[in-house]
Amino acid sequence: MSDHQPVVEPGNEGFDATEVDAVTASMFGGVIILIIIAVFIGITLFWDKFLVGRYRTVVEAAPNQQLDDLHKTEARLLNGYSYVDKAKGQVRIPIDRAMQLLLDEVKAGKAPYNNKDSVKTPDPAEATAAAATPAAGAAAAAAPSAATPAPAPAH
After folding, report:
1. pTM of the model
2. Looking at the domain assignment, is residue 51 inside a domain?
3. Residue 69 lies inside a defined structural domain of this protein
4. d(CA 101, CA 95)
5. 3-state SS assignment for residue 92
6. Which residue range(s) make up the domain with 81?
7. In terms of Cα–Cα distance, which of 124, 89, 119 is closest to 106?
């Protein structure tokens, strides 16, 4: 070990009394900020040039023939007429036509499923008759509807 002992001035025991050089500290901070900015720009350029650019060339530029064929087949099945089973007489119709036929069946009350839970639309003839006879209209307004639930009993 060295026998060198630091010289301590009286009144300055225990701490460094010298000032920090403001110019050097400012330059050091500025260099650190410039390095951070350069790293950020470098990472951004790397991301754009190599990763995003590669994605565009691999994924977007190359057409996928299988996907195109699948879309054409789906469009043909959704928008065209064809036989599903010719022996049984099962056919495929365009989706727009099928939706229109289903709406027509529901409006006519011939839907092949239970539609009793659906909302009943008022019949125009009944609405006209109720409006024509004021006494019947007032009585109908005063009488509670069967569709209106009864209030819950008080406990």
Report:
1. 0.35
2. yes
3. yes
4. 10
5. strand
6. 65-111
7. 119
Distance CA 81, CA 83 (A): 7
In a domain, 50, yes or no: yes
In the chain, the amino acid numbered 7 is: V
What's the token pair of residue 80?
Answer: 């065209």
Q: Kindly state the tokens that stand for 106.
A: 């529901």
Q: How far is residue 4 CA from its own chain's centroid?
A: 74
d(CA 41, CA 35): 10
Q: Is residue 137 part of a domain?
A: no
Q: Per the structure block, which two tokens stand in for 50?
A: 């190599």
Which pLDDT tens digits describe the chain residue by residue (155 residues)? 567 676 666 666 666 667 788 899 999 999 999 999 999 999 988 888 777 777 777 777 667 788 889 999 999 999 999 888 999 989 999 999 999 998 888 888 787 666 565 556 667 777 676 666 655 555 555 554 445 555 556 55
Total number of domains in the chain: 2
What is the C-alpha to C-alpha distance for residues 150 and 130, in angstroms, rounded to an integer? 24
Is there a single domain that holds both residue 92 and residue 58?
no
Residue at 121: amino acid letter: T
